[in-house]
Amino acid sequence: MNLTDMRARMRRLAKLAQGLAQEASLWKQCNAPVLYVRRLEYMEGVQDAVSGLEKARVALAKMIQEEETKPSLFG
């Protein structure tokens, strides 16, 4: 995997996290007739997913930074 691929993955992870955060926001605002406990379980799962995506995005950012600061073999 090269830097271009890693940057693209990082953008996709950020987009997924943004979409899930929007989902969480919509559920916080809605009055769907679901059991409160089930809504909390769902929201916790969405928040866990957002957290996991952000953790993966940060790990990719670190990998990219390390690759960018490596001394060039040709330079």
Give start-end ranges of low-pLDDT stretches.
Answer: none
Largest sheet: none
Any idea what the shape is? rod-shaped
Structural class designation: mainly alpha
Radius of gyration: 18 Å
Order of helices and strands: HH
Tell me how many strands there are.
0
Task: Count the DSSP helices.
Answer: 2
N→C terminal distance: 21 Å
Mean pLDDT: 88
Strand content: under 5%
Helix content: over 70%
Can you offer a commentary on this structure?
With 75 residues, this protein is mainly α. The chain has two helices and no strands. Helix 1 runs antiparallel to helix 2. The longest helix is centred in the last third of the chain and has 34 residues, at 36-69. The model has no long low-confidence stretch (mean pLDDT 88).
Q: Which helices and strands, and how do they pair?
A:
Layout: H1 3-29, H2 36-69
Helix pairs in contact: 1-2
Comma- or semicolon-separated keywords:
75 residues, mainly alpha, 2 helices, 81% helix, 0% strand
What's the gist of this structure?
By secondary structure, the protein is mostly helical. Helix content is 81%, strand content 0%.
